[in-house]
Amino acid sequence: MAVFPLPPRLPWPVRLFPYRGAARIAVLPLLCFWICFCACAAEEGSKGVAAVELDAPKEVQALLRQYVRLLRMPPANIPAAGPDRLALVRRTRREVAELLATEGYFSANIRIDRGNPAHWRLIVELGARAVVAAVNIGFTGEIGQDEDEKARRETLRNAWALPAGRPFRQADWEKAKQDLLDALHGERYAAAKFTMTKADVDAAAARVKLDIAIDSGPVFRLGALEVSGLRDLPADFVARFSTLREGEVYRLQDLLTFQESLQTAPQLAVVVVSIDPDPHKAAAVPVQVKVTEARPRRLGFGVGASSNTGYRVETSWHDVNLFSRGWELSSGLRLEQRRQSLYADVFLPPVRARHRDSAGIGLERSDLEGLRIHTQAVGLTRASKRGDIETQLATRVQHEEIRPDRAEKSNYATLTVNWSWVRRAVDDVLDPRHGHVFEIQLGGGVGLSANARNFTRGYGRYQQYFTLGKSNVLILRGEAGATLAQTRDGVPQDFLFRAGGTQSVRGYAYRGLGVTEGAATVGGRYLATGSAELVRWVKPSTGLAVFVDSGDASDSKDSFKTHTGYGFGARWLSPAGPLAVDLAWAREEKRPRLHFGVAVAF
Asked: For 247-264, what is the mean pLDDT?
């Protein structure tokens, strides 16, 4: 016979036993119930639960294991007392029912088999999944009254993300509502709101009827800029980046474009552009621009190495609020083994976000393939950017002195103009794996000294990236250029062409392909190169490459001779920037050459 312990303190029915008669008769059944309850609790608590098994269809197992408390808690934490266990069982059934309802299962059968006290089973039978039977979307406010908006109302209804016939899921229901609201908030109706959303569930028929009513509110039009946070920058600095016009219909994308253009300004560290969706301000809602200014001055140092120009050290100085006018000064000194330069450029704030003007001065000296060049230049530039297209118009006056080994030196002054157009339609500017880059340059010059020559010049480059499978990238590149002049003499070397080296024809020295003058290689009037490269990324940041390059730079079409290099290499996306190491074989020179490049800035 089992012996069941009684509670140390007797319950109130036992303490009533001194009473007689009707009181004792009334209390006796309660006392028996209490003793049985305590006996069940003692028996249930005497056996521990070793495991809880889930018996449910695969499509809901992950959901239940993630959120049902009974399945996540260790068996040792399951309450030993009967009342607490019963509460846990009831809570588990409720949790499972609520979770399955979010997936559209409203008539699921949920049981907890405790036949084996040490091994429980949570059994779930899903039943029919509810589907959307009908969707009714009603519009009020100006969008519902304006006949010109009839087409948009139909577009929004057709774009509803949870149409009739689709399985009902709570997540899809919430997303569909948010998408509809975002579509109205994104254009014209910044104060749009739901006045009613209802999902009428018929669990027995496994059908759900959706009813949505949305009030668009008034049409919002843009008002004046309200800028806060400026301390040292000029008061009109932010307005120079804006293409917004007062009275225009509000579009969220226009605000985001404005915000993105401000975020590119080095003068600003934090930018937030928004409006107050108050219907009372809809006629001319102020555009609120909150900014935090960046540190105006920065000193930088860097080191690097390249097979083209050798080791490099550099220092730079940036002042993004020069003379407290919001002008940006970018200056630096770069010392490379084969080239040295000193420069200073001043960039003005943009003009209504359309273009940006700059002025600069630079000194450069180089010694490449027996050709020493000393250049001094001063110039003006206007740059524009629209999406992935950048254009630039630059004019400068430059003086150049060239000293070829074993040949006469010469110097001349030239006024040059160059226009460039570049489209970078790639998935990642630093690590492109799909897309293309297309560049065109047109320019010319007028001689300012007796031995300088007038000329015109054209140049084009196209580079295409193809993703092959999951790990391979095919890169095809081609470039061509021509300088039209009676002779190359008197034309600045920047407007002539030399080939060879990284990003040109590998296997040959940097700018080693051109016209021979004395013991030096100088620029020619014609250029054509092509390249094919296949990179296999064995890891996200490490790849192996094979390639073939071909081309030449010459002073006439008749003297053009194709030079080919081919080989293999490694790629590494280092924290400091992309690193490429290639070993190439020059077919005409019959010798290998190592090409590499890395830059570290701090």
From this structure: 94
